[in-house]
Amino acid sequence: MTTYTSLYIYTYLHSIKFVCINMDHINICRAPQVIYTHKYKSVDENDLDPDEGNENLCHACTLPIFSTPYKRYRDYIFHECCWKIPEVLTDHPLHLKVPLQLYTLNRMVPFQFYKCNTASGCVICTQCKKMCNGSFYQCHQGSCGFTIDLICARLVVDILHRSHKHTLVPFRSRSALITCEACESVGNGEFYWCSLCDFYIHQSCALLHNNIRHEKHKQHSLTLTYHLPQDSLKKIKCVECSLCHGKLSKNSGVYICTRCDFAAHIKCAISEEHGGFEHVPIREAVGGLIHFPMMDEHKSAMQYMRMDNNGGSSNENNNEKNIVAIDNIHDHSLILHEDYLEGSSSSSSRYLCDACVEPISGPFYSCSECPDFYLHKCCANLPPFLHIPHPYCSGSSWTFMPKRRLSNVFPNRFFCHGCCKMSNGFAYQCNECQRILDLSCALMPEIITHEAHGKSHILFLSRGSFYNKYSTTYSLYNLYYGCGSCHNCKLDVRNALLPSTVEHKLDRHPLKLMYSSSSASISSLEDDDKFCEICEDGVDTQDSFYHCEKCVTLFHTRCIPRVGDRLSKFKFGGSVRVGCHSCPLTSFQLLTSYSYTCGLCNYTIEGRREGVALECKKCCYWLHVDCAERERFRDFNWSWISLDI
Fold first, then answer.
1. Which end of the chain is more exposed for a tag (fewer CB within 10 A), N or C?
2. Is the pTM above the cut of 0.90?
3. Rounded to an integer, what distance in angstroms lies between the CA atom of residue 251 and that of residue 253?
4. How do strand 447-450 and strand 290-292 relate by DSSP bridges?
């Protein structure tokens, strides 16, 4: 979140030059006291990419910004804590008699004047004998010249670094041996320290290259992560260092490959013993990763996820042994289309894939006999088994389940344990715990980047229950993405798959996906005006929502049909026969509060609560899905179901 506050700076009335006066061989540079008001930019949530965080130095303490909230004025950047340091330091234990005045080497920031205590014009800290390059405190009484930098002054300089969830402070150890939590080496020197956890990290380890190309793994670059999310698939897979073959620690840093399962200790990756390396900018590394969100709701995320960077299929070996035979997916012959439907002038987005329940785009298959069966070509080339380790049970093998295997759950519906939504597409089922994931959740990439959180921050696919920052939901057995740079960022797959723009009949403009109230038009709204145009309930603008900036309208993501609602992965239509009615019935979505009466149990079908029902338009006949399921089970013939892929 960005705010603007008034800043008072000292400037010159008639000249921009400092006037130097020689007094007792001490150079004093004085700045006039004329005050003007300017604006500075305050950034409360640091989304700098890791390379920028390492390179940008605080103009006061000269330490890197890292992930710390900061304030920026023109070309100068400050830690938020460094901006709040006092202008006068009284009763300092190293200089009790006279208060110390705050000075800075830069003349464009609001500190007064300073003394050069060396013949060369440099300012040296009296305590550590190092040159002061930023702000410092100095005694201006007589010829004292006592000078101390911010670190030696023992001021609280709080640093946020992606290696630890708490704030860190600079710490100098001259004799005590300390273990670095990143490289696991023992020694003394300059560290960052957490007083709550007794966590230490070398200042040099905090400045390691975020991305390198190693001689032992030239095909892909290696990305530095100080902590992998504990429930991430990458954490479960990478248990051994690929260079020394030792066990990887749960808490120490690691260089990992985002394309394969190569991983190495920090000390092994940077050691000359295991070969050299070269620095690769982090932006080049994340450029090859899948970036969300999708552009609009007419684009298929499944096709995007199933294509590698060269435009080919993501299957390692695209042969008959690695994919499910089409004969086992559908009973009829399928026709391949390279583009939209021949002879159709309308967009193909109104057609949905029966496997992933996402908009159809070429290449895809259509059925020669079923008028409403469509299949992405990538969804027809799926592996029969997936080997995905997960924390729910000891098993890691998942079996492909097309609709014909799900027919015992009428009408092919199931609950996805990844996104917690109902679906009737294809799925994968765990062979141990029998949990089911729909195609998009089962095939989500292990590593992505997302516009909602730092374009160069790498997000790792993880599994488990958590509180979602972007949707205010507590989800059990959910899939989410955890950031390798920020400890508090978790984005569930439902929000990760939301398109960037959508259309809705209540607004003639495209609706933009928002993740916070950073827009000026939203910030100006009163709380009573922040309501959803569809359900008229309040909208929390700190969560994800859709927004029209021209009309200043807000929409819950869950209220947009086919996008964020609980039935967005359910394909309606088709036909099914049940014994209680002579005509075929079609599934449809109940989008209004209008109530229908079930023709079998005579109870009301609640539109907002039920969501889906079966109907015969010819006879104006409706059925609960549960009633139709019980009716069909009575005379259901199970013998035709094949258990072989």
1. N
2. no
3. 7
4. parallel
Q: How far apart are CA 172 and CA 499, in angstroms?
A: 48
Length of the chain: 645
Give bridge partners of residue 508 from the DSSP assignment: none
At 3, give phi and psi (nearest 5°).
-130, 165
Q: Which helix (H) or strand (E) holds 385?
A: strand 385-387
Domains of the chain, residue spans: 2-132, 169-206, 501-559, 573-634
Q: What is the rounded CA–CA span in Å between residue 401 and residue 436?
A: 9
| Residue 55, both tokens | 């390179």
**Which tokens is 64 given?**
């890197």
CATH number of 573-634: 3.30.60
Q: What is the dihedral of CA 440, 443, 448, 451, to 10 degrees?
A: 0
Residues 544, 547, 553, 559: what is their CA dihedral angle, to the nearest 10 degrees? -50
Q: Give yes or no for a cis peptide into 391 (omega within 30° of 0).
A: no
pLDDT at residue 310 in the model: 33
Residue 309: DSSP 8-state: T
pLDDT digit string, tens, across residues 113-162: 445 544 456 788 888 888 888 888 888 776 787 888 888 887 768 888 88
Q: Among candidates 444, 168, 469, which has minimal Cα distance to 305?
A: 444
- DSSP-derived letter for residue 307 is B
H/E stretch holding 54 reads helix 50-55
142: left (phi over 0), alpha (psi -120 to 50) or beta: left
SS3 430: strand
Closest CA to 171 of 144, 152, 147: 152
Quote helix, strand, coil % in the chain, to nearest 5: 15, 35, 55
Average pLDDT in the 420-449 region? 88
C-alpha distances in Å from residue 205, one per residue of 164, 225, 482: 13, 11, 22
Closest Cα partner for 110 from 5, 230, 1? 5
| Cβ pair 268, 243 in contact under 8 A | yes
573-578 own/partner pairs: CB under 8 Å, 24+ apart: 573/372, 574/372, 574/411, 576/410, 576/411, 576/614, 576/628, 576/632, 578/614, 578/623, 578/628, 578/631, 578/632
- Report the SS3 class of residue 596: strand
CB atoms within 10 A of CB 40: 18
pLDDT, tens only, 88-122: 888 888 888 888 888 877 544 444 444 554 445 67
SS3 at position 263: strand
Q: Which two tokens stand for residue 615?
A: 């109907």
d(CA 224, CA 201): 15
Q: How far from chain centre, in Å, is Cα 41?
A: 24
Q: What is the pLDDT of residues 29-61, one digit of tens each?
A: 333 222 223 445 555 556 677 888 888 888 888
Q: How far is CA 345 from the centre of its chain?
A: 38
- How far is the C-alpha of 93 from the C-alpha of 96, rounded, in Å? 6
Among the listed residues 571, 577, 300, 302, the one whose alpha carbon sits nearest the alpha carbon of residue 412? 571
How do 596-597 and 604-605 pair as beta strands? antiparallel
Instruction: Please name the helix (run of DSSP H) or strand (run of DSSP E) that holds residue 204, with its range, or none.
Output: helix 203-206
